[in-house]
Specification:
Helix content is 4%, strand content 44%. By secondary structure, the chain is mainly β.
Length: 312
């Protein structure tokens, strides 16, 4: 089973569409239980479904932002003694991350030690404890930029990239469906050639999951948009009505043998990302197509002609 740009700091009102959990949605997170599954790379878009007609769109594997680092003339420090008058008015608090798009969006939580301030390098008092240089990590995507002031030492690496839609899917627990059949297709109660078998699944709720990747908190809202069947004999079918999972589907096997019947669930999702308390992205995740497998045994009924001795 399964899947440096010019830096500007701005402060203003922030408004981003946040995904809201639909009524009755399932919330996931943490370790997977027997009733949940994560998509893998093989499930992206249409996944391994062998047929056609799925409403599928492969998720992007690109991060929403490209980071670059811009230096500044400021250092991060702790002040331990009285300041000369010419310095006192130049000490500033370390700002938090800021998002800039079509409108100005407010700052997040500073990425600096508690109590640290910033000051121009030539004005640093001899008794101050220097934490590191103040740099600006700049994340750029079409129509938006994130500016993250940060105290760093020469060995500190850049910030981690925001997760791509593909990475988000791989960390998102999704509810599993179950495949039911009549006859059940076991060795003791097989399906029969040329006789119809009924297959059906279980309806799935919308799913809400919270995942964390490289310092980004991500809320995912996903819902099933289609179900598809593959019967292991070269035939398949797609049902685009999300409510069709429980409707029995007839399939007829022409040859005896062991088949792999798969019910595929096409999940479509969106993700809302925050970083250090700042809304940074509201991303379309595209789709994943996750299969649920059922081994199915088919037997053949043969007519046997018997004659009674002495009779013709």
């Amino acid at each position: 089973m399964r899947r440096a740009a010019v830096v500007c700091l701005v402060v203003g009102a922030c408004a981003l569409a946040v995904a809201v959990a639909p009524a009755g949605a399932q919330t996931g997170g943490g370790d997977l239980g027997p009733d949940s599954v994560r998509a893998t790379a093989a499930d992206f878009g249409g996944g391994t479904f062998p047929g056609s007609g799925l409403p599928a769109r492969a998720p992007s594997v690109e991060s929403p932002y490209t980071w670059s680092r811009s230096p500044s003339s400021m250092v991060c420090l702790f002040l331990t003694g009285p300041l000369p008058p010419e310095v006192a008015g130049r000490v500033l608090p370390i700002p938090g991350p800021t998002s800039v798009s079509g409108t100005l969006e407010g700052p997040g939580t500073p990425l600096a030690p508690a109590g640290a301030v910033m000051l121009e390098r030539p004005l640093v008092p001899p008794d101050a404890v220097v934490v590191g240089d103040l740099v600006y990590e700049v994340g750029v995507s079409p129509g938006r930029a994130i500016v993250v002031p940060r105290c760093v030492t020469p060995d500190d690496p850049p910030l981690g990239d925001p997760p791509s839609p593909a990475e988000v899917w791989e960390q998102t627990p999704l509810p599993r469906t179950r495949v039911h059949a009549s006859p059940p297709g076991t060795p003791t109660f097989p399906g029969l050639t040329r006789f119809a078998t009924l297959f059906w699944g279980e309806a799935l709720p919308d799913a809400v999951a919270h995942v964390a990747l490289r310092g980004f908190d991500v809320t995912v809202v996903a819902h099933p948009v289609a179900y598809a069947w593959s019967f292991g004999d070269g035939t398949s079918t797609v049902r685009s009505d999300p409510g069709s999972a429980t409707e029995p589907l007839r399939a007829t096997f022409l040859r005896r043998g062991d088949y792999g019947v798969d019910l595929y669930v096409v999940w479509q999702g969106r993700a809302h990302m925050t970083f250090a308390g700042l809304d940074v992205a509201d991303a379309d995740l595209g789709t994943v197509t996750v299969p649920e497998h059922l081994p199915y045994h088919v037997a053949e009924v043969r007519a046997v002609l018997r004659t009674t001795p002495g009779r013709r």
